[in-house]
Structures are given as C-alpha cells and as structure tokens.
Amino acid sequence: MTVDHPVSRSALPYGFDCPIVPTPSTQLETLTPSVAANLASFQAYLRSSKRILALVGAGLSASSGLPTFRGAGGLWRNHDAMELATPEAFSNDPSLVWQFYSARRAAALRAMPNKAHYALAELAKRMPEFLTLTQNVDGLSTRANHPPDQLLHLHGSLFSLKCTSFYCDFQEDNHFMHPLTPELAIASEISTPYTHIPQSGLPRCPKCHTGLLRPGVVWFGEPLPWRVVKAADDFISAGKVDLILVIGTSGTVYPAAGYVDRIRMQGGKVAVFNIDIDDSESDDDISEMESERSYANRTKWTFEGDAAEWVPVALEPIIGQIEVQEGNSGNLV
Question: Is pLDDT larger for residue 206 or for residue 7?
C-alpha cells in the first residue's frame, strides 16, 4: 500500500530528497530486555484500545530536519522570532512579518514527512476513533496524507491563509504554492539583505480584493481556535479515550498536561514519545516479567528517543511496517 504525497513537487521550487530511514526490525534488534518488555506491554494494550488521541509537538518533525520556531538563538535576521509572531507586529510592518513567515513556509516545504507522520496517518485510516491534535504548523502531517477529518491544528498552519479585513471571512487551508507572491521569493534567501516589500507586493485577499492576507497561525496574544478546541473536547467527552499518545512534546506542560489529566480521569492510559523524558514522565515501577505479560497495572509508558523511529515501531501491530523510500511516498509492508 502506498501513501501518496498530496503536494505536487512540480508546483514547488525546491528539490526534495526523502531520507531512507532504518526499518523497524533493525531498531528492534538493539532493544534491551527491559525496553522490549515495555514495548510489548504497550503494544498489548494498543491492540485492545478502541479510542485513541495523539497530541503531537515539534519533536515529531525534528527528524525531518525542520528547525524549531525560535531557531538558532531565537532570531531571524536579527529580529526576535517571538516578537514577529503577534498581531501588533503584522499591523506595524506586514512586510517584515510576511517575509518571516514566507521563510518558514520555505523551510517547511524543504522538509519531508518522516515515518512517524506516515504512521499516524495510517493509524487514522485504520481506526475511525483515532484523532490527532497537532501543535505543529509545518503541514507535514497533511503532506503525509493524514485524513483531514481526524487531524486538528491547535496552533493553525503556515499553509492556511485568512483575510485581515473585518468585513471579509475569506480563509483557505492547505495552500502549498510558494512563494505566495514573486516579491516574497527573496525571503528564502538569507544571504540577501532585507528589502522592504510594499503592500502591493504582499498577498492580497482574492475575495474582497482589499484586505491583506495573513498566515493562518495562532499568534501570541490570540486565543486558540474555538472550533479546534471544541472538536477535541467533543472527542474526549464522547466516550472513554483508552489511550493518549504524547509525541514530541512534554506530557507535563500545558496544553498537553490538560488533555493527559482528562484522559487519565476517564481511566485511560498514557504513552510518551520524546527525545527527553523527565522524571515525572517515567514509566510505572513494574518488573520486566509483569510488564511483558500484562498491562493491567500500567498507567503509562515512555519511549525516549527519536519519535520518527519509535512511533512506527510502537504502532506496528496495527499499521504494519512503514518504509520511507526515495520518492514522495511512504510504503506499508
């Protein structure tokens, strides 16, 4: 089975080289007995789970080579990235803010979905009661062909656009064409000096023809999108969530902690996949023998390391093995 990439490469001005990632069987050979027992216990519970929520953060895309929001030193062209991500910054200098976000769009488009993105997309296709709530704005889950009705963007997306005019309701999702205007092409060239772009060279609303478009991300000082928050709340309230997968983010920091707490109160269990696991997220203190044969006494599992490696392995009993090959698709074997 092939997972097709929903974005045409011919539409993008970049060359994509999709990395070969070691197959799950290669990684499993290196597991210690205790880690293997932990994995076996998790997979036993996974098979019995009917309703699953995945909450994902920046660590999911780390293996795709995508820089973090703040980047090196938190600066973009000597500007504080956090100060550019505000409504006030856009109002004061839309040229500067659009060039910042155009550069981020370019970086996201250079990256490719990794095996964890494809694994979650495949789990969604096989489990109608599975939902992914992503804090990432990079569009990689969408490009991994994750079913859109099972994918919620808590912080919006770099590839959503909306009009800034008070009288216009235009919004467009999954706009992967880049650059949005010829003038914004310079934003991707860090070596070139910053050049102010007049508003005539910035993205303009195609509906009202007067308002500027803005990136469809949640800026500092803005509320989380009500529709997304409600959809996540409705999913949790609709019935017991057996399992929450916390991937590439900490399960002890909000908003993740809030969802983890709610699912635990329902009697659900937690699995954390992250490059760093703090003491408060460590596994239950259960012997290897007990954890290998039973999950009854477990409330959580932790898998420390690269989410792109761990997630496909952990989900393998449901989705099979995933290989990312040269080209633009993930193959299930």
Answer: 206
pLDDT for res 266: 95
> Of 117, 146, 155, 178, which is the active-site residue?
155
Residue type, 298: R
Residue 31's pLDDT band, with cuts at 50, 70 and 90, is confident
Strand partners, 244: 53, 270
What are the two backbone dihedrals, phi and then psi, of residue 302, each rounded to the nearest 5 degrees? -130, 140
| Distance separating alpha carbons of residues 1 and 332, to the nearest angstrom | 5
Rounded CA separation 246/287 (Å): 23
155 counts as catalytic = yes
Is residue 190's pLDDT more than 60?
yes
Cα dist from 253 to 20, 94, 122, 229, 245, whole Å: 33, 32, 27, 17, 14
CA neighbor of 144 nearest in space, from 63, 80, 215: 63
Tokens of 91: 């109002």
Output the pTM of the full model: 0.86
Give the pair of three-digit tokens for residue 32: 């210690």
